[in-house]
Amino acid sequence: MSNTPALEVENLTKKIKRKLIIKGVSFTLYPGEVFGFLGPNGAGKTTTIRMIVGLISPTSGTIKIGGKNVRTEFTEAMRHLGCIVENPELYPYLTGWENLEHFAKMDPSIPKDRLDEVVTQVGLQNRIHDRVSTYSLGMRQRLGIAQALLGKPKVLILDEPTNGLDPAGIREMREFIRTLAREENLSVLVSSHLLSEIQLMCDRVAIISKGAVIRTDSVENLLAEQERVIWKAEPLSLAKEILEKETEVQEGLDQTLITLYDEPQLPIWNEKLVTAGVKVKEMRTQLPSLEDLFLEVTGGESID
Amino acid sequence: MKKYTLTIVSAVSIAATLLWLFGLGWTLQDQFTANEKFQKQKEKTESATSKKEDGNLTIFALGDSLTRGTGDADGKGYVGYLSERLKKKSEQDITLFNTAIKGETSRGLLKQLRQSEIQRQVKQADVIMMTIGGNDLFQQGKVLESLDKNAINGKKQIYLRNIKNIYKQLRELNQDAVIYHVGLYNPFSNLQDAKTTSSIVRDWNFQTAETAAQFNNIVYVPTFDLFQLQVENYLYSDQFHLNTEGYKLIAERVASLVHFEQEEKNDE
Amino acid sequence: MINLVRNEMLKLLRKKRLYVIILIIAFLVPLFTYAQFKEIQEQREKMGNQDWRTVLQQEITDTQNRLSSSRIQDEWRKYLKIRLSQQQYYLENDIDPRAPGAPTFMRIFVENSIDLLLPLLVMVIVADLVSSEASGGTIKLLLTRPVKRWRILLSKYIAMLMSVSFIVLSVAVLSYVISGLVFGYGGWNMPLLTGFAVSGDELLTDRVHIVPQWQYILMEFGLVWYVSVIVGTLTFMLSVLLRSTAAVMGIMLASLIAGAILVNMVSSWESAKYFFMVNLNLTNYVSGMATPIEGMSLGFSMAVLAVWGLAGFIIAFVTFSKRDIY
Fold first, then answer.
1. Per-residue DSSP letters for chain A?
2. Where in chain A is the domain with CATH 3.30.70.100?
3. Model confidence over A111-155: pLDDT tens digits?
């Protein structure tokens, strides 16, 4: 990763009718990384994204795209940005090609042959001259990405990109996004309320809840921090009794106990169990899902 | 093809915008600019119309409600019936300009004669028809306020002075046209005081005729006798103006005079 | 900017609204042509001869009759008086105000459509110019381009102006071509009177002058265009303010129809003359008809419309560049 950030969001706030909806969000995107923006519906994901793309003006804070301030250098900043906010809503009465032409004309820096490039990139060559109203959702999604890529942006912002796609479509999208980040050195901001998706797609994640970013870290780090040990032992009650003296214990499914992963302590706990006559049948470490993680950091806020 | 439609529609739209802007500009210039231009155009109109009216008979009517035709069910008045009769008799096209105003007094008429448009029309007239004085004498159809001789005399003096001026002006504007001044009748001849009112009207008519006689070609047409008897049959429901029958009577009388004049004119 | 306007024109064309408008006009014009044709025919039958002078004279006496009735309202009397002196003027100057011919039809058609039909047509085009982008969600893509918001709105405004011109032109061309089949295509040079001014009870004729019909028509179309642009601007503003095209149309429709009704009722409510809806009938000033409220004149009406239009324009641009889009 290079050191010049592609997107910088600093202390962003938004007040609507005296109510603070976004409470100082900050994060940074670097070229070539896919950044996940995770939070339940209503947490402020969409509002934040709309502030980044200039649809909503922030109450305070700065947003820089490719080093250009969205507020003061709107045109220059937008030149580095491609986005799909929510659904890819294009003009249904125009053909795919006319749609792209329409958006290309709005930026004089886009050369004419760029249209063919992006169409090939998203694989829409066969249907590009049909009206958008005849497209399937997946095709619209692809056309949406094509228009976002028109201006060779440094930052690509995708709000819920897999919304409404079938499993095959979701996988395709995921791979496409990863390829873009890798090959074009693009930074991609993906928002989602689906944890599994973020986990599979992103390098780093910001978790947002109630208008504030709770944590920002790489996916591995976040998960590693929450690594657990699962014990299978007999008799279970005795094992629990002993372990509870050492650490926090939860009862898992299938007659198991779960404790935190604490590398230096692990042999000691084990020894104690054995000396107390507990038969330790199995002892394994497990990475938790982001689901668990999320529940943990948000304090149990519901998520789909 | 599709691409061309866009270009064509756009080009046409832009051209149309320019055209309408031009039209709008022209409207502003035309409706708001100073009178100079209008004066010029008016002159043009004048010559155009006077040329056109050569060869047919132009009747110019002025005065009060009687000439206007108030009370006539068809709104034509004696001037209307007159022109219809003349048209039939002479088989000539007759152009009628009626500038009579309801409630006009001799003073008002004098004022009206100062308007350039009226003057222009007087100049073009072959025959001039007028009624005036009724409103000087009677107050809007009421019986004479008082039969006080002095008051009526005062009114009469003012009227006579005005009518003289009117005659003079008309003659100055147009030396040839015969002026038919249709006289007053007594709408109250069936009421009490008929004798007094009739004598006032007769005197009024006499004095006017005397004044008219001082000028060339002014015919004072009496109507007093027409409605002396059974005036109620010829009066409109307001008991002052004439009804259709009444107007027709006047038209008949004037028509016989005009026809004669017209032939004489043709002979010249 | 040219590219942006081109985009807007493309969308307008692809939405097929312009074609619908042309179809509406093409359907209405034969209808009115037939009505006009019938009217002329009936007049001829009634009169027994074709001399318009007799017809006009008859009209004058009709008017006089109505005037002599004491039961008519003052307002109506005033109107009749003005009409009367105008008709007399026409007669005296040997000018047939209703000589049939395609240009005459065109003139009558446009005079009668200035206060309702044309504004409605304009409204149909303009109502969804911005609101459809909002309701269709495409505004999000439109506003995340490297183009400032006011430029995007300006391109839409220019497209609006162009389509208004196009509609007015369609009205002109279609009414001429279609009615010409019945009335013939001549009559461009027929002289017409204009410059009437109404002051209180009187029709002032001191500025009356003659213009050839083609100039008269061009002038009237200029005014029609002006009115359409103002109505377009106000619709445009509503289109910016509201997401729903139906709401835009509803409000515009209500105010236009209210205007048509108000014109007949407001003569005693003087401040109603500051509403834009009662000032739409600009061509009446050119042809010398009575004003709905005393103190109205061509200059006044145009100024009132200009103020409304300017306010609409400013509101539209300020809201559009400041608004948050959710």
1. --SS-SEEEEEEEEEETTEEEEEEEEEEE-TT-EEEEE--TTSSHHHHHHHHTTSS--SEEEEEETTEETTTSHHHHHHTEEEE-SS----TTSBHHHHHHHHHHT-TTS-TTHHHHHHHHHT-TTTTTSBGGG--HHHHHHHHHHHHHTT--SEEEEESTTTT--HHHHHHHHHHHHHHHHHH--EEEEEES-HHHHHHH-SEEEEEETTEEEEEEEHHHHHHHT-EEEEEEESHHHHHHHHHHHS--EEETTTEEEEE--TTTHHHHHHHHHHTT-EEEEEEEEPPPHHHHHHHHHTS----
2. 227-286
3. 888 888 888 888 888 888 889 889 888 888 888 888 888 888 888
The sign of the dihedral angle between the CA atoms of A99, A105, A106, A108 is positive
The CATH number for A227-286, chosen from 3.30.300.20, 3.30.70.100, 3.40.50.300, 2.40.240.50, is 3.30.70.100
Answer yes or no: are the C-beta atoms of C227 and C282 closer than 8 Å: yes
Please say if the pLDDT value at position B72 is more than 90: no
Count A/C contacts: CB-CB distance under 8 Å.
81
- The alpha carbon dihedral of C286, C287, C291, C294 has a sign of positive
Residues of chain A with CATH 3.40.50.300: 7-223
User: What are the backbone dihedrals phi and psi of residue C4, each rounded to the nearest 5 degrees, phi first?
Assistant: -65, -45
Statement: residue B259 has pLDDT above 70? no
- At residue B30, the pLDDT reads 80
pLDDT at C165: 93
**How much is the pLDDT for B44?**
36
- Average pLDDT for B25-48: 55
**Residue C107 falls within a domain, yes or no?**
yes
Domain ranges of chain B: 1-33, 46-267
Neighbours of C262 (CB within 10 A): 18
Given this model, what pLDDT does residue B2 score?
63
Domain annotation covers residue C80: no
Interface of C with B in 191-250 (CB under 8 A): 194-195, 205-211, 215, 218-226
Tally B–C CB contacts below 8 A: 122
Contacts of A115 (CB under 8 A, 6+ apart): A97, A100, A101, A104, A150
User: Is-contact B141 B188, C-beta < 8 A?
Assistant: no
8 Å CB contact of B75 and C163: no
Q: Which token pair is A174?
A: 């995921």
- Pick from A87, A91, A147: which is nearest to C11 by CB? A91
Chain B touched by C9 (CB under 8 Å): yes
Residue C75 inside a domain? The answer is no
Task: Identify the CATH class of B46-267.
Answer: alpha beta
Q: How far is C229 from chain A (nearest CA, A)?
A: 26
C161 pLDDT higher than 90: yes
- In chain C, which residues have their Cβ closer than 8 Å to the Cβ of B42? 209
Residue C191's pLDDT is what?
63
* Inside any domain, residue C12: yes
Residues in C closer than 8 angstroms to B83, CB to CB, are none
Check CB contact under 8 Å for B20 and C222: yes
The percent of residues in chain A predicted with pLDDT above 70, rounded, is: 92
Is the CATH code 3.40.50.300 the one for domain A7-223?
yes
For residues B97 and B130, what is the distance between their CA atoms, to the nearest angstrom? Answer: 12
Coil, helix or strand for B234?
Answer: helix
Q: What's the pLDDT band for C211 if we cut at 50, 70, 90?
A: confident
Please judge whether A89 and C6 are an interchain contact, meaning their C-beta atoms are less than 8 angstroms apart: no
Residue B37: its chain C contacts at CB < 8 A? 209
pLDDT in tens, C162-198: 999 999 999 999 999 988 888 878 777 666 667 666 6
Indicate if the pLDDT at residue B268 is higher than 80: no
Q: Which domain holds residue C255?
A: 2-28+100-322
